[in-house]
UniProtKB/TrEMBL annotation:
<keyword id="KW-1133">Transmembrane helix</keyword>
<feature type="transmembrane region" description="Helical">
    <location>
        <begin position="57"/>
        <end position="82"/>
    </location>
</feature>
<dbReference type="Pfam" id="PF03151">
    <property type="entry name" value="TPT"/>
</dbReference>
<keyword id="KW-0472">Membrane</keyword>
<dbReference type="InterPro" id="IPR050186">
    <property type="entry name" value="TPT_transporter"/>
</dbReference>
<feature type="transmembrane region" description="Helical">
    <location>
        <begin position="176"/>
        <end position="200"/>
    </location>
</feature>
<feature type="transmembrane region" description="Helical">
    <location>
        <begin position="300"/>
        <end position="319"/>
    </location>
</feature>
<protein>
    <submittedName>
        <fullName>Probable sugar phosphate/phosphate translocator At3g14410 isoform X1</fullName>
    </submittedName>
</protein>
<feature type="transmembrane region" description="Helical">
    <location>
        <begin position="273"/>
        <end position="294"/>
    </location>
</feature>
<feature type="transmembrane region" description="Helical">
    <location>
        <begin position="212"/>
        <end position="231"/>
    </location>
</feature>
<feature type="domain" description="Sugar phosphate transporter">
    <location>
        <begin position="31"/>
        <end position="318"/>
    </location>
</feature>
<feature type="transmembrane region" description="Helical">
    <location>
        <begin position="119"/>
        <end position="141"/>
    </location>
</feature>
<feature type="transmembrane region" description="Helical">
    <location>
        <begin position="153"/>
        <end position="170"/>
    </location>
</feature>
<dbReference type="InterPro" id="IPR037185">
    <property type="entry name" value="EmrE-like"/>
</dbReference>
<feature type="transmembrane region" description="Helical">
    <location>
        <begin position="27"/>
        <end position="45"/>
    </location>
</feature>
<feature type="transmembrane region" description="Helical">
    <location>
        <begin position="243"/>
        <end position="266"/>
    </location>
</feature>
<dbReference type="InterPro" id="IPR004853">
    <property type="entry name" value="Sugar_P_trans_dom"/>
</dbReference>
Length: 359
């Protein structure tokens, strides 16, 4: 009778798989926490640079232009000089002109208007207004034929809208100029996401975050250069010699690029939906921390109640999109299985069938 236990090799393999799984899971959560920390910090960093009297740099277009120029140069160095990251191909001149340029223009618009809003409204209120993003994305997507209206989606959009209205009603000192800037940034971001979906679905091109920044950043920089020349450069010249802190601005640009890199890491280890869920957590962190860090942020109970309602709608929206994506993926898997199960004899018979004669 064999009294020996299970093979030691099996135990070793199982232990190795378990430790590898734990290690990969821990690494994924580390990337998510890194993204939440970096994105929250970058929002506060931008607010501080633009509104601080000590730094004296109230130029949102100029700051965004620096971000895009820095990103363009660094992406070129990483991909073409050191070749650390491989750029995805498939972007022809025609695709660049018809898809990348609109995406770059909307990205520039989003960053410009979003940063401009920080000059007029608090960080917390800006995040509350950003909760309307799913509403804008859905309405513009429906207009472009990418989304279908349903009672469920209408209810989700209604919940988000009511939540934002309640949060706005609870705002102590509201600046309508800042609201217009922030909502303009929301519309710009929604248009960018719609253009991205068209870029992927209709053009058939898929790019990772770094590849997208490589193509989009120069275009966005060019789009920002024009308004900077006419709107902000005269103000910068009239205020005397340019005496801005170069080290601080360099760090701000570097943090922005590292944030984009963290998005690439999170998506490559999880999914794009994880970024959305992490974004919801990030928004709550920003809203609560801004009340402690900035004197212009005064949260009321109505603020938090309205924002909680809006976030509930955003979570429902993300859950709806997740189920829709899961159904699409399962249908694609079924099609692949059916194609794989087709016997070689059937394929040969189909190939040898004579063409039908026209009568």
């Amino acid at each position: 009778m064999d009294r020996s236990g299970p093979p030691q090799g099996g135990k070793t393999a199982a232990t190795a798989d378990r430790s590898r799984s734990w290690r990969e899971g821990g690494l994924t959560y580390a990337y998510i926490l890194l993204y939440i920390a970096l994105s929250s910090s970058q929002i506060f960093f931008n607010k501080w640079v633009l509104s601080s009297k000590q730094i004296n740099f109230p130029y949102p277009v100029g700051l965004t232009l620096l971000h895009m120029l820095f990103s363009s140069v660094l992406c070129f160095i990483l991909t073409k000089v050191f070749k650390v990251i491989k750029i995805d191909g498939g972007v022809t001149p025609d695709i660049y002109a018809t898809s990348v340029v609109p995406i770059g223009a909307m990205f520039a618009m989003t960053l410009w208007l979003g940063n401009s809003a920080y000059l007029y409204i608090s960080v917390a209120f800006a995040q509350m207004l950003k909760a309307t993003m799913p509403v804008a994305v859905f309405l513009l997507g429906a207009a472009a034929g990418l989304e279908a209206m349903s009672c469920r989606m209408f209810l989700i959009m209604l919940v988000i809208s009511v939540g934002v209205v309640v949060a706005s009603y609870g705002e102590v000192s509201i600046s309508w100029v800042g609201v217009v800037y922030q909502m303009g940034g929301v519309i710009g971001e929604a248009l960018r996401l719609v253009f991205m979906e068209i870029f992927v679905k209709k053009k058939g091109v898929r790019l990772n975050s770094i590849s997208m920044m490589y193509y989009v950043s120069p275009c966005s920089a060019l789009c920002l250069f024009v308004p900077w020349i006419f709107l902000e450069k005269p103000k910068m010249d009239s205020s005397g010699p340019w005496n801005f802190p170069p080290v601080l601005l360099f760090l701000n640009c570097l943090c922005t690029f590292v944030l984009n890199l963290s998005v690439f890491l999170v998506i490559s280890h999880t999914s794009a939906l994880t970024i959305r869920v992490a974004g919801v957590v990030r928004d709550w962190v920003v809203v609560l921390l801004s009340a402690l860090l900035f004197s212009d942020t005064k949260l009321t109970l109505i603020n938090l109640l309205g924002y909680g309602i809006a976030i509930a709608g955003v979570v429902a929206y993300n859950n709806h999109k997740l189920r829709k994506e899961a159904l699409r993926m399962s249908s694609e898997v079924r099609v692949d299985i059916n194609n794989a199960e087709k016997s070689p004899d059937q394929e040969v018979q189909i190939a040898l069938l004579p063409p039908k004669e026209d009568k």
